[in-house]
Prior knowledge:
Blueprint: E1 2-5, E2 8-16, H1 42-54, E3 62-69, E4 75-81, E5 95-99, E6 107-111, E7 113-120, H2 121-127, H3 133-143
Amino acid sequence: MFRRRxxxxxxxLVHPGGPFWxxxxxxxxxxxxxxxxxxxxxxxxxxxxxxEELGLKPDGDWIPLGSIxxxxxxxxxxxxxxxxxxxxxxxxxxxxxxxxxxxxxKFKHFPEIDRAEFFPEEIARGKINPAQAGLIDRLRDxxx
Length: 144
């Protein structure tokens, strides 16, 4: 999701939840994303992941941004949609369960996403997973 503010673009990024990411910031943020089944429509999956990770159903025209490959080999297919978070927005993310602390035998639930924020382009570039930064360029070029 992106929005226009004072003749510039701002990008909605999400921060992964859980203990591994708790103290990570620069390069740790991402676009909302998830895994698709082999025969699943990728745009439909993108919309579903957005809703599951943020608790918000995005409206608007979806702009295809193509795909990128992250450092670990994961391929991310992306779309952009112009919009904003409602004033009353409260993050409602899915959760996952892991053993925490490690090797303790105790399992805890953590949110998939613990924060969601709009950032101006310069700040977004520092916060986003470096492999995903090209998506910012693609969107900016398409909107020019």
